[in-house]
Amino acid sequence: MSPSRDSLVDALSMKGGTGEHSYATNSHYQRNVFYEIQPVVIENVREMLVEVSFPGCIKVADLGCSSGQNTFLAMSEIINTIIQSYQQKGENLPEMDCCLNDLPESDFNTTFNLVPSFLEKLKMEVKGRCFVSGVPNSFYSRLFPSKSLHFVHSSFSIHWLSKIPDGLENNTRSIHIKDPSPPNVFKSYLNQFKNDFSLFLKMRSEEMVPNGHMVLTFVGRKVSDPLYQDCFQVWSLLSDCLLDLVSEGVVKESDIESFNMPFYNPNEEDVREVILKEGSFEISKIETFDHIVPYKIKCIKEEKEEDQSLQMEVGKRQASWARCITEPLLVAHFGDAIIEPVFNKYAHYMAKYLCVSNHRPNMTLIIVVSLTRT
Amino acid sequence: MSPSRDSLVDALSMKGGTGEHSYATNSHYQRNVFYEIQPVVIENVREMLVEVSFPGCIKVADLGCSSGQNTFLAMSEIINTIIQSYQQKGENLPEMDCCLNDLPESDFNTTFNLVPSFLEKLKMEVKGRCFVSGVPNSFYSRLFPSKSLHFVHSSFSIHWLSKIPDGLENNTRSIHIKDPSPPNVFKSYLNQFKNDFSLFLKMRSEEMVPNGHMVLTFVGRKVSDPLYQDCFQVWSLLSDCLLDLVSEGVVKESDIESFNMPFYNPNEEDVREVILKEGSFEISKIETFDHIVPYKIKCIKEEKEEDQSLQMEVGKRQASWARCITEPLLVAHFGDAIIEPVFNKYAHYMAKYLCVSNHRPNMTLIIVVSLTRT
């Protein structure tokens, strides 16, 4: 096990297929967030249609599309908005080129099996005019020819870093930023995010036409101090589960010492700073959504606050969610034998956490950034 | 079992993955044919580079790419030819957009896992300039925006029809054209081929730029009479194996009565006629390669004509080849329980056939058509 840092990130993909533990089955949360930010996407598509001149074909990309039905949520909305806009103006529909991107290890087969029904839903009138392709590469590299993209969407992706940050050797008791962490840990994560996000913007700036629009949705945090009440509780709980397995002798201590999540949830200031410094895009708007985080379920408070079995049920559901976004990565580093025990523990910790979480503020939020290529 | 004719063709894909029976493992034959026709592809790419004016990005498509290493054979050759041509002229390299197409059910995951090494091989100098995408749809429909493609390649694909021809209800004792066949059978197959190939050309004509080039390689036959010595022996043998299973009670008679291969191997005249009638392309050249067909192995004649165990070995190899190109289709119609018995029988029949085949002429050949979009 314990492959190199680079090969670890090669394994960074959501759990494929359509089985019990797959991303396709467990990504309700991401779907719900999309429904909340949908008006932002629609507004940006409409603005783009006004500001951009077309060569006859509108090219749209969804970056970090993962697999399953969610993949087509944003793309459907974007395409429908384009169709409606053209129909309202009484103009002939343009051709539309829909590009779905994710890392080569992602499960494109599951996504591609849904393409016929996606095209079917676009109805007869669009027949032969909407083309779908998959682009298997990291969005921290060039994905498309120069000046070819009109609209870019990315949801729940750019909080994933291109690699595990350098200089985390002393972050031995945690897989992320967690109170207490050695002081350099936050700095390493922040630097990696700044470099990665800046590179992401540079690559897109080369690929997008002038006045092209981009909407990015990702997990952020409310405060500048990333140690404030463990700003991404999912990783703190996962750290605790792995440390338990170390003390039980199931996981080697050296394995957890060398493992860190390639993830950073920036605050609004981090995001704004990188965009301004990179300079290719104008910020139309940065919005934040204080969305129900997956480990804080309303129904518990509203219906049966004391019901432990319900809390356990929700704990299990949250464990499934954490599992579908981390399993390939954990398997690549620790092997597959740890997956069941880790997420059994995770469900229990989460159930306990739910007892107290209603009295704690939610430290994460969803950040939605609307950008225009200048 | 026995799904409708349309859903049957939905299952038309080569066997995915990289296992023992996969297309990736068993497609040496297709690879060898490519090496033989490689000069034709290179010549056509060079001609295209002379005749076409570029907007900065050259877009190339491989249609019916299947999965595994073979997928990148033609694409590598095409891209390398472009690079060399530009380097010889001392000009800056253009961007290159490589599109890999197959049906949505194909195993794109196996192909996409090979994309990083494909890009790696293109060396540092091309870094960031070559983009790879997968296009999951039938090539009997539009796949790409209008006038976007510069070069199209398709190998071992367009002998596969878009559907099982209509009117084959009386073709009860065979899964294809086989002596004896009811007289309408050949006509049904020929009509379906003409319609499909014509549609293929029409779709490509809309997608390609003026003077764009296309090279199509497929299985053809030498004679006009398709009954002459069972012009595609692979299906005759497969018919015999399935009929054996009917007589053994393993396969229902009605299942074989309703099953026909969506395959047609045209002769040169069929091909020429459709291209001329469709009218969008000029034939630069039609070449035929009387290639070693997979069921006729030189080594048997040369080394040990009498060695039955060697013949059985070759029989098994040919059964693996026939299996990797038909398994998903057979499973969709007959269920997966028949696969092992069918191909065990197939290996035995093939071994027997090899004893006599050296005294029979080879009735199939590879047809390579070079076309220019007028």
Automatic annotation (TrEMBL), chains A, B:
Methyltransferase keyword on record: yes
A GO biological-process term: methylation
Entry keyword set: Magnesium, Metal-binding, Methyltransferase, S-adenosyl-L-methionine, Transferase
Database matches in Gene3D superfamilies: Methyltransferase, alpha-helical capping domain, Vaccinia Virus protein VP39
Pfam families: Methyltransf_7
InterPro entries from the UniProt entry: MeTrfase_7 (IPR005299), MeTrfase_capping (IPR042086), SAM-dependent_MTases_sf (IPR029063)
Protein's name in the database: Uncharacterized protein
Protein source organism: Eutrema salsugineum (Saltwater cress)
